[in-house]
Amino acid sequence: MEEGQQYRRKTNDRRSGEALFRCAAIFLPYLNPAELFCVSSTCKTLYQISKNVTSRRTSDVSRGFEKLPVPFHNPISGDPQPYSYFLYTPTQTLRTPPDFRQPWGSDHEARSDPSDPFLFRVDGARGCESCSNGCGGDNCPCSNLECGPSCTCDSGCVNRVTQCGVNVRLKITKDKKKGWGLYAAEFIPGGRFVCEYAGEVLSSKEAKERQQKYDEVARLTPALLVVKEHLPFGNTCMRMNIDATRIGNIARFINHSCDGGNLHTLIVRSSGALLPRVCFFASTDIEENEELTFSYGDVRLRPNARPCFCAAAACAGILPSEDT
Ligand SMILES: C[S@@+](CC[C@H](N)C(=O)[O-])C[C@H]1O[C@@H](n2cnc3c(N)ncnc32)[C@H](O)[C@@H]1O
Fold it and tell me: What positions belong to coiled-coil segments (predicted)?
């Protein structure tokens, strides 16, 4: 081969190599950890790009969906897992198709626009209009609710406490026995809104089927929450099934505590929104580095119950499981 041809071939090879690596930076963030590992073992450059993807994933579980980054921290020596993989939604979502993918770990992930927290609206509903003494007050039609999609006030309204995403510094830390957990990365005063429980909203039939599947696969860490509201005489009048196992937000990392923990759960309704949302508030002052926990419910004796390691004085020894 003459010298000129050789030179052209080398130049072409270099250009196609560069193009491949540019594409790799775009498609690697779509891969799950096992796929990323396979690709990274093929050559040094792909290894380097994968390493960058992993370090960006570790720096923010929320992928830029929340205003504040929520980093992973794994203090367990010898444990190679730097982060936990799932798809992120900051609010309630419908069932996602099994092949749905989302990029995580690219360098242009910052999202500034707050997500719309309302999945369905009530057609023709009327909320508040220009409340003279501010929204949420005695004369506001939303005094027992949060303002919502049928109100004229904007996202800065004081009566939309739970609709602007995570506003406190948090982190996800791994514990040898309980796995990943949500921790305060700053002092959180009692009463402060912490986060919504976001995930796929399911019918009770779907929730039951998924729970059965999760019970059968011991290595899974399911995050299916069932919240029921009761009438004064005991009957269930409302039930929300939210599954954050495959797609969810930071609340999917909140571990159980038999003493009720330091979070309380509130069902929040908004004017003009069809579905209520499940939200967590600090039930007491929470110190920096303290784990955030709540009670998953009443303990039922059942086969294959998972052990509880909450360390509360009144620990029942096994985790509650939802009787779906
Ligand atoms: C909603 S997830 C919480 C996050 C989970 N630790 C993880 O690593 O993804 C629920 C699962 O966490 C674990 N878990 C939660 N609270 C626990 C506790 N008090 N003791 C032991 N395991 C716990 C159980 O495996 C449970 O099925």
Answer: none
- Alpha helix locations (H) across the chain? 3-27, 33-40, 44-59, 204-216
Pocket probe for ligand 1: among 216, 306, 308, the residue whose CB has the most ligand atoms within 8 Å is 306
Instruction: Write down the residue that tokens 């270099």 correspond to.
Output: 14
**Strand 87-88 to strand 170-175: parallel, antiparallel, or no bridges (unpaired)?**
unpaired
Residue nearest to atom 24 of ligand 1 (CA): 221
Residues with CB under 6 A from ligand 1: 84, 177-181, 221-223, 252-253, 255-256, 306, 308-310, 319
ipTM above 0.85, yes or no: yes
pTM of the full predicted structure?
A: 0.92
Nearest Cα residue to atom 26 of ligand 1: 221
Ligand 1, atom 11, lies closest to the CA of: 221
Report helix, strand and coil shares of the chain as percent, to nearest 5: 20, 20, 55
State both tokens at 65.
């969906």
Atom of ligand 1 nearest to the CA of 296: 16
Parallel, antiparallel or unpaired: strands 263-268 and 170-175: unpaired
